[in-house]
Amino acid sequence: MKLKKLAAAVLATAMLVLTAATVSADSIFDTAKNIDSGKKVSKTIDTGDSIDRKITPTENGTATVKVTAKTFMFYFYVYDEDGNDVSYEYDTTMGSKDLTSKKGFFWDSKAETFKGTFSFDVKANKTYYIKVERYNWSSQGSGKFEVSFKYPSEKVEQTALMTLNLKKGDTVQLGANGDKASWTTSKKSVATVSDSGLVTAVKKGKTVITLKCGSKKQEIEIVVE
């Protein structure tokens, strides 16, 4: 009986350690913040805490995340929008991978620093969730992280705001160069806009008509008198 109890205690301990080293994708959907390509996060985090970010590439390609960590060990995870693990490649200039956990990375013991780059394939208009988590069971190091993100992202160019004055019932045809032009209005109650760019003044007030055409964006203020 004592032997069985001892075995059960050992098994429970092993399960506890395994749980501590496994991250659920569920929570990251709530905690992850958007980050633009080319941006960097500099933050000191406690053991067990993490930096959670999400990216949405606009083109197919490769995303890279560079990590500098002043901590004994951390975990690196990538999930797709369905919560599945995304495989990645890594290249370290300081530190090494923990072959047991598969997702853990150690610092360079002499420099007490980890430096490395993680890369993974991405698809256009899909969201990816990235978690960089400091190891639970060790407070070695300052816990300072610098994490930079780079991925295919087309920035939208925006031109200066134009203004058109209309009277209730007036219509005006707006034009655009390009087959992929799309039109939207901020207040349909003031003025509507069709798929072809035909604006109809509905009632007194102001609204903004937005044209998107490729990487360009044009906003037109409509004032209905």
Structural summary, described in words:
There is one protein chain. This protein is mostly beta strands and 225 residues long. It has 2 helices and 19 strands. The strands form 4 sheets. It has a 6-stranded mixed β-sheet, covered by helices on one side. It has a 5-stranded antiparallel β-sheet with strand order 2-11-4-9-6, with no helix packed on it. Strands 12, 13, 15, 18 and 19 form a 5-stranded mixed β-sheet that branches. Strand 16 and strand 17 form a beta hairpin.
Give a concise summary:
The chain is mainly beta. It has two helices and 19 strands.
Chain-averaged pLDDT? 85
Which of globular, elongated, flat, extended, rod-shaped describes the shape? elongated
**Percent of sequence in beta strands:** over 45%
Structural class: mainly beta
The number of helices is: 2
SSE string: HHEEEEEEEEEEEEEEEEEEE
Largest sheet: 6 strands, mixed
* N-to-C CA distance: 88 Å
Tally of strands: 19
Radius of gyration from the CA trace?
26 Å
How would you write the strand order of the largest sheet? 1-3-10-5-8-7
**Helical residue percent?**
10-25%
Low-confidence stretches: 1-24
